[in-house]
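> forwarded from #structure-qc
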């Protein structure tokens, strides 16, 4: 795939800790001292992720991060990870896709061969974790969309879904989410984002989660069945959405630390905010193209 400079929409969370006043103070010190303090960098790592479309372009594949991950444990995100040294971002996206889902080298090569036609840059997201405390993880995430290679299964029936071999130290489940479900999730995210646009600060977060933020009841009531593969079942099964995914403001969101220690007690969890932003961009392009 040819590599060239492109312009991408870029965003970060409305409650990103790096948009707080403390970050402004740090920036001023960097300018004054001309060198970053210990533990800080002038650059941030780049990660590439891949929103994989179903053959009919009506669904996206998301994975659930292992509960033992140090950042974003248990959240639903696209397959992805850090770029290797000198590795093009688009190749890193499909490499991580194949590694996390357990696709063989032959599938990876098919993705690479068809990349010019099927792989498209979508947007970028400045990610920081955690969002309500001094962040331990900071990276720029580049999102790509990938069409399912025509030479592989067309997935028109359960028997044609490719078996997965999840990279279980990083991924514990995968699910196909149709646009009807994605639209509800994006509406929930948009309502939540509106709160932060109205001059609220990160110090308000703990109170906001329990009092002021819009309700995620619509998401939590979704019983639409989606195709899901888990590290436990090792097969594709139809599962009600609200057993897998909850809204951003759900008070019953599982305790991530507890689940990291006891992954047998797993409830629904939300999509990451960066994932929701990328899906909103994908839906916008899809709607404008008339699909």
């Amino acid at each position: 795939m040819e590599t060239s400079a492109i312009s991408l929409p870029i965003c970060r969370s409305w409650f990103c800790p790096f948009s707080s006043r403390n970050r402004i103070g740090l920036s001023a010190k960097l300018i004054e001292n001309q060198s970053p303090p210990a533990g800080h960098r002038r650059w941030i790592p780049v990660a590439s992720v891949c929103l994989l479309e179903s053959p009919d372009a009506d669904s996206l594949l998301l994975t659930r991060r292992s509960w033992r991950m140090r950042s974003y444990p248990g959240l639903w995100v696209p397959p992805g990870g850090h770029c290797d040294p000198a590795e093009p971002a688009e190749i890193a996206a499909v490499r991580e896709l194949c590694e996390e889902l357990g696709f063989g080298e032959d599938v990876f090569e098919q993705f690479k061969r068809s990349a010019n036609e099927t792989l498209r840059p979508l947007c970028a997201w400045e990610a920081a974790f955690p969002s309500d405390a001094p962040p331990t993880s900071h990276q720029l995430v580049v999102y790509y969309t990938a069409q399912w290679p025509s030479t592989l299964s067309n997935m028109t029936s359960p028997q044609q879904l490719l078996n997965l071999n999840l990279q279980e130290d990083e991924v514990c489940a995968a699910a196909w989410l149709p646009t009807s479900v994605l639209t509800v999730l994006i509406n929930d995210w948009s309502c939540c984002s509106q709160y932060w646009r109205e001059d609220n600060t990160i110090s308000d977060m703990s109170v906001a989660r329990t009092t002021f933020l819009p309700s995620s009841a619509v998401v939590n009531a979704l019983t639409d069945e989606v195709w899901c593969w888990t590290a436990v079942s090792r097969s594709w099964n139809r599962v009600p959405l609200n057993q897998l995914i909850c809204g951003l403001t759900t008070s019953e969101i599982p305790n991530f630390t507890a689940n990291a220690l006891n992954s047998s007690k797993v409830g629904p969890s939300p999509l990451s905010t960066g994932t929701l932003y990328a899906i909103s961009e994908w839906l916008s392009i899809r709607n404008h193209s008339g699909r």
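QC bot note: The first helix runs from residue 21 to 33. The chain has nine helices and ten strands.
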